[in-house]
Task: structure prediction
Amino acid sequence: MKKIPLLATAILFSLVFISCSSRTYEEAMKVPEEKFYKGQYLEAAKLLLPDVNKSGKDQLLFMMECGLMLHSGEDYEKSNKVLLPAAKLAQLIPISVTDQISSFLTSDVNSDYRGEDFEKVLVHMYLGINFLMLKKFDSARVEFLAVNNELAKIKSEDGSPRYKQNVMAKYMTAIAFEINGELNRDDKDIEYAYIEYKQIYALKPDLAMVKDDLLRVSKRLGYEDDYEEWQQKFGRGYNASGNTGELVTIFQSGRGPVKKSRGSLLKDKDMGPVINITLNTGNWAAGVTVAAILVTLQTAENPIPKFVKRSNKVDRIKIESGGRSINTVMLEDVEQTAIQNLEDDYGRLYKRVAISIATKAAAAVVAGVAAKAAAEQIKDLGPFASLIGTAVGAATGAALFAQMRPDLRSWHTLPANFQLGRLTLKSGRQKVKYVFIGGSGIIHTVQKEVEIKKGEKTLVNIRTLY
Result:
């Protein structure tokens, strides 16, 4: 029996290998995500625990997803047990611009998921909220400060900050420091909260609630000059009632964005022209034409994905109690941050990625032509010579197609945005009405009974899924 030559065997094996595919992250998330968006938070988290505890390229993502599911199910202790190591893991897998470009050309879905910059920030945000809900205010301070530290580390190539301050995180930082300061009679913590409130006012001077904070805390610290300045600016003072507390509502609205393909590589308005220019100005080997190279890219996708919005039907919550009402205010737009995050990356990288793709495609075609020519010189191959020519062409196209798939992994269970509502109420058991309002009016109403304690802040955490 005549043996198949080694070269032909290797090529045939590579074709079989290319045709095989492993279970994707999206496939793994399908059932847990369905349960999550049905409100079955803890059941969804349970399904992910085996992946959370197993090292692998998607472990960080599974940890973030599971941690948020547990958070939404109000199991804040277990959520922290998952998110604390996730925060550490996210620091262990950084990526340089060079590595980022290389990852697009070697199928990024096969690499360890490193987390988008904004996702790393939100891990600490959730840890901070968890600690607040557990009344571990000192630990909450640490995590909210970590949000600001993460933001400070995210720089553009010229060293300038890539993101604005996360106002929600700054607000939660201030609240955590103020609560801790009042509990421990520590004016240094209250002073830190005051500094945060001043920075929030500088960022959002039209935010009504921060004006109350500046008046209250400057008066509490005995900063008479500051208090008078705020009085003049805001046209009012602060009169504290001796028998009140504050209801602080954290609202996480809707479904966050997910990654989608940008579509055909060659049809992309930015990538396509760069690839064509690169190919038309290159010096390629004999027998290699621009047309031949372009054929290998006809079915390739743009390797840089984009974020697209999903459902978010609630614009705000109107909170009513004791004859008073306020509306929640959006302080962190996850949708816009995510979209801008990838668009910034795209603007920084697309030219270099396109040039690398064109060069790599040309090199593959050159190698294919050389392999076919070499095969035709080997007499022992007999009928397999033509097979190798076909296989080389097919393998080139298949390999390029596989390498040009965009990495669509992302944190699926995030909300579209974070909102905050603060309402001063009399101490005691209070009935609170939460009115969920969308573009067409009231969507639904929820009644809650909360315990308001004199001089303290009562925290309520709400998430909508539609």
